[in-house]
Write a structure and sequence with these properties.
six-stranded mixed sheet, globular, 28% strand, 7 helices, alpha/beta, ABC-type multidrug transport system, ATPase component, four-stranded antiparallel sheet, Rossmann fold, 10 strands, 234 residues
Length: 234
């Protein structure tokens, strides 16, 4: 039987009476890359911020590994939402050390994570001089320091060049083998096609489609159909 890392039931979120998420129900299996798709303004970031505790839902429930989500579950969640939270006047090691001190994590773990995100050879170079791809990898490294079971990435390839995208894709694909479930949001269909195992498509604050991503599936046609309908696509 498939085990879920995240189960969402009838989740809604309103801002000043305006519905942004409407009765969202989703299942995100363990040890997969789950691609969350939607046009700009569809509600992707709001949903991710709710899963990571940055926002409280107006109604509905979120379950983490089968139990109702509590703030204690944040210890098992890493997230990179919007821009990487880095100090540009510090090196990669120093950025990691700041976070490690807050979490009580030893230096050996910093070196391991820097190796995982391919930033061990940056030496004394300040993060402000990093390429955008390196900054994204450092942001992911910071999110990995607490050994999360769930990693949430909001539009991580935005602004990256083709090489940076390829490197980041390979990194993300490696996580499920390490016992990390990944939720990655994007509006770049081709990237999700190459990265995700499962997809969910949000249209106008509702789930228009959810399921396993099939090989040779015409994701663009499915996406356009769901968005055009603004509702469920069976």
């Amino acid at each position: 039987m498939q085990q879920n890392m995240i189960t969402i039931r009838n989740l809604s979120k309103e801002f000043k009476g305006q519905s942004v998420l409407k009765n969202i129900t989703m299942e995100i299996p363990k040890n997969c890359v789950y691609g969350l798709l939607g046009a700009n303004g569809a509600g992707k970031s709001t949903l991710l911020k709710t899963i990571t505790g940055l926002l409280n839902p107006t109604s509905g429930e979120i379950y983490f590994e089968g139990h109702k989500w509590t703030r204690a579950d944040l210890a098992d969640i890493g997230a990179l939402i919007e821009t990487p939270p880095i100090y540009e006047n510090l090196t990669a090691w120093e950025n990691m050390k700041v976070r490690a001190l807050l979490l009580g994590i030893p230096d050996e773990k910093i070196q391991k994570v820097l190796k995982n995100v391919d930033l061990t050879d940056t030496g004394k170079k300040k993060a402000g001089a990093f390429s955008l791809g390196m900054k994204q990898r450092l942001g992911i490294g910071l999110a990995l320091l607490n050994d999360p079971k769930l990693l949430v990435l909001d539009e991580p390839v935005n602004g990256l060049d083709p090489l940076g995208i390829q490197e980041l894709r390979a990194l993300i694909r490696s996580f499920p083998q390490k016992g990390i479930t990944v939720i990655i949001s994007s509006h770049i269909l081709s990237e999700i096609q190459q990265t995700a195992d499962y997809i969910g498509i949000i249209a106008k604050g509702t789930v228009g489609f959810e399921g396993k991503l099939q090989e040779q599936q015409d994701l663009e046609a499915l996406f356009m159909k769901v968005v055009a309908k603004g509702g469920n696509e069976s």
